[in-house]
Structure formats: structure tokens, C-alpha cells
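Table S2 (continued). Query chain:
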Amino acid sequence: MITISEAAGYQIKDMMKEEGNDNLFLRVGVKGGGCSGLSYGIGFDEEKNADDIELEQHGIKVIIDQESAPILKGVVIDFKQSMMGGGFTIDNPNAIAGCGCGSSFRTATREGTPEEC
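Corresponding output:
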């Protein structure tokens, strides 16, 4: 469903250690909002819902809600480091357009509700 690169996996594991809880899930989802209508939600969660999809990569338990799953199919999450700092990148083959600030997108089947950037 989604792929987490090795670099992103290391970074996520470091962040989990900082949280001090080895039982956290990485929740990846999509919600309405942003300039183009949809935006990503990524964070830690202590519980999974009964209808969440669960997978594991690099020893990280990942959960995705059923509604977000089709939009996230084929997504690659990476972590890039540069002289200006580092950050996560998301490559979504389902996105057909994104906003100039890079924080939102839309797909051919889901546009969401655009907001002001």
C-alpha cells in the first residue's frame, strides 16, 4: 500500500524513541483542506481503530484508515537531508495537482475542499 524508505524509517524510529513509547503506531491519512483540497496527516497514535489497515515496515507499525487507503495506494514516504535541514517527502502517484506551497494535493477522484494558503 505505502512504502517507507530506509532513511524515513530511521528518522521515524528516532522520533518514536523521543516519545518514549515503544507501542506507538504511525498513523498515515488524508483529510480535506489546504489550497488544493486534500492534505496528508502523519503522526503517532497509541490505538488503532477496528477498521484501520495495519502494515509494518522497518519495524514500524503503520495504520491507515479505510477512507484514506485508496488515495494513499502507492505512496512513498522518504526523508531528505540538505544544508537547509531535513524533512519528510511524500510521493503520491495518485496526485494529479498540488499547490504552490506543497502542502496539499488533489486526485482524479477526490478534490476535497480547498482553503486559503
